[in-house]
Amino acid sequence: MTIVQVDHWLRLAALAPSPLNTQPWRFRVTPAAIELFDDPARALPVADPGGRERTIACGCALLNLRAAGAAAGCEEQVALLPDPARGGLLARAVLAEGPADAALAALAPAIEQRWTTRRALRAAPLPPGLLPALAAEAAAEGAELLPVDGRAARQLLADLCAEADRLQHHDPAWRHEVARWIHPGRSNDGLPASRLGGRALRFLVDHFDFGGTSASRDEVYILHAPAVLLLATPGDEPRDWLRAGQALQRVLLRAALDGVQAGYLQQPLQLPGLRERVAAAFSPGRWPQVCLRLGLPVEDPPRRRRRPVADFADFVPA
Ligand SMILES: Cc1cc2nc3c(=O)[nH]c(=O)nc-3n(C[C@H](O)[C@H](O)[C@H](O)COP(=O)(O)O)c2cc1C
């Protein structure tokens, strides 16, 4: 594991998705291992008070690191939450030359091809065989991928999303938190906003309630997406969130290999009460972690906004 190699792997790890593109991870690289930490300075206390989504995002980054290592011919040893006494330490990965996980290595080329869409998807169905392949990727990390199929089920999910959209947009603290991550003058994290339109957008998001507009848009998205999927885990502890993140990233990368991209429908999972109703309807006995719509995108990928490795990694000499 050379410094140049690790620097490359960390750049790929940071291409993981995260809520509002907060990139809530830190890495500590020692000669023996790469440690992944939660970065609470990048928390979203209103939308994600327990840090569940932040930990899922860190799980996504960990999966990218593992896939990048496997593609470089490394064998992995990964421990989740290896030392509870060290607060914030989420995982320790040892990547050394050895028999690499071929399934993980096969996903690595998609790390740079995956991105999040916020527009309607093409109506074309998913490539044959893709859905079972995605379910297998989720299962490989101990999660389940459950399809939300049929008009009645989609409508119920749309109604739950609409309720969440209205509640969130009505809350000034939530609007303010989203607006804080729209950075017209900064290009390496947060949501895309042009220098010209960005300030206006930030002001509008902060001060006006667009709950009704978002609810109507999400209803169309949910009813017409080629696939709507719920990723669920048996438990709901930080270890489950890390597993969910790795499962999510495997699903997203496998889809991206076929040109299929995802949009998120997280709103009902961010509100207690609504999340339980989603579970009761679509994943009884399991915890819904992520809700996605999948299909071929209509637009070109946006320009990437990511921090440089030096911003989120410390290299500790022997
Ligand atoms: C746990 C999690 C929750 C997310 N929630 C949303 C969401 O509610 N709405 C949305 O548009 N994108 C959501 N995203 C996607 C991020 O906005 C996206 O990953 C980020 O802006 C970086 O862009 P990229 O995925 O195109 O690299 C979420 C991502 C993760 C990992």
Automatic annotation (TrEMBL):
It comes from the Bacteria. Gene3D superfamilies: NADH Oxidase. This is Nitroreductase.
